[in-house]
Amino acid sequence: MNFTFSPEEERFRSEVRVFLAEKNPNRGEKIGSDIESSLARLPQLLAWNQALYDKHWVGFNWPQRYGGGGGGLIEQMILKEECAKDHAPILGLSYMGLAWVGPGLIKYGTEEQKQRFIPPILKAEEHWCTGYSEPGAGSDLASLQCKAERDGDHYVINGQKIWTSLASWAQWMILLVRTDLSAPKHLGMSCLLVPMDAEGMEVRPIKVMSGETPFAEIFFNDVRVPIENRLGEEGQGWDVTKTALANERSSIAEVTALQHNLEDLKDLARRCRIGGRAAIEDSSVRSRLAKLDCTIEAMRLSGLRFLTKQLRGEPIGAETSVNKLLRAQVEVEMGRLGCDIEGSAGRLLKGPHGMDVGAKWQKHMLGWPTTVIGGGTPNIQKNVIAERILGLPHDV
Ligand SMILES: Cc1cc2nc3c(=O)[nH]c(=O)nc-3n(C[C@H](O)[C@H](O)[C@H](O)COP(=O)(O)OP(=O)(O)OC[C@H]3O[C@@H](n4cnc5c(N)ncnc54)[C@H](O)[C@@H]3O)c2cc1C
Fold this sequence. Notes:
- This protein has three domains: 7-93, Acyl-CoA dehydrogenase/oxidase, N-terminal domain (Butyryl-Coa Dehydrogenase, subunit A, domain 1), CATH 1.10.540.10; 128-235, Beta Barrel (Butyryl-CoA Dehydrogenase, subunit A, domain 2); 250-389, Butyryl-CoA Dehydrogenase, subunit A, domain 3 (Up-down Bundle), CATH 1.20.140.10.
- Helices cover 46% and strands 15% of the residues.
- It has helices at 7-23, 35-40, 42-54, 73-85, 95-108, 111-122, 237-249, 253-271, 283-311, 320-342, 360-366, 368-372, 378-389; strands spanning 128-131, 147-151, 154-165, 172-178, 189-195, 201-206, 215-226, 230-231, 273-274, 277-278.
- The protein is globular.
- It starts with 6 loop residues before the first helix and ends in a 7-residue tail after the last helix.
- The structure holds flavin-adenine dinucleotide.
């Protein structure tokens, strides 16, 4: 692997640093990444999105004719890396819109869909949620039952979705439904773009153990959606969804975010004391920090390998499950280590004893399902690695 950057790429890195020095709303502050903190700072975050949009840095490598940057993948990586290093908010606010709805629209959308949906994602004017999981179809997503039947120039949707993140804030949902009950289960599905205010749609928020309501269950009772809201061909829903999930599992920027958290942990270990001396002197703490450091570096190198494949025009697929699996392990261990270093204060969510801003590590601990289960559980990642990378048989 060649790790050197060209003079143009280095110039771009300098430009990003100058921009961040002026516009990064998080500069010099340690800010929680939970929903409450983000909502409290919405005006600053919208101004940040606008500043990025004006530079054509939201949707960095998306086509310019829809408002994207038309840029290269290496520059995009540099941008994400510098933003993460500077503790800047994520690039663009329409998280799911940018992560997989937009890429799905670019790959499978009609010209009208691209013109209608891509600009509001980039400008953070419209937010998306993802309707895949159902009470009986999570890991085995292809067993889903929510169905859409053709009635003239509309689909009529009936059924239920669950664990729909950010459903209460979204204006649109990318929905995976069964459109052909007689076809083999992976072939009978289609993707629909559904407005959240459609008649017959009910959103019931779900409260989680940290007290937040980050997701909802959704009920569809004869919800009508025009056929031009279908993304891809009828029956192509599984391909569209696979593209989305590969995007969810391949993010390089999140490695820099993990490096940040590791630095915060080291800093915490310098400030807290275990057995009468700084926690950073404790051999068990040092060994756990070192293990995290090595795993994150391995993830960074894998991320660069994915980038190289993308630059060569090769698809990335099953291998992203390795980083998804490692990330889950790293995130859980970080929360545990942070709370262990804080000692008895590490067990408190509120009160005077928290050692780090906003009960950071306690919330990290309680938020483990986000990174462990969301986007596919560790067992499923192991199945993918076993079958599609190592070539092990499906049934033993
Ligand atoms: C924070 C968070 C956000 C989410 N956001 C969304 C969202 O926005 N939209 C959406 O559609 N869904 C979302 N989900 C749902 C998520 O995709 C599912 O929870 C996940 O796919 C697991 O499905 P399940 O909960 O039905 O568990 P199940 O599939 O029932 O799994 C239960 C257990 O069985 C294991 N298991 C299942 N099948 C196998 C197998 N073949 N081999 C080995 N072990 C197996 C699993 O690993 C797990 O431990 C979110 C989940 C979380 C936690």
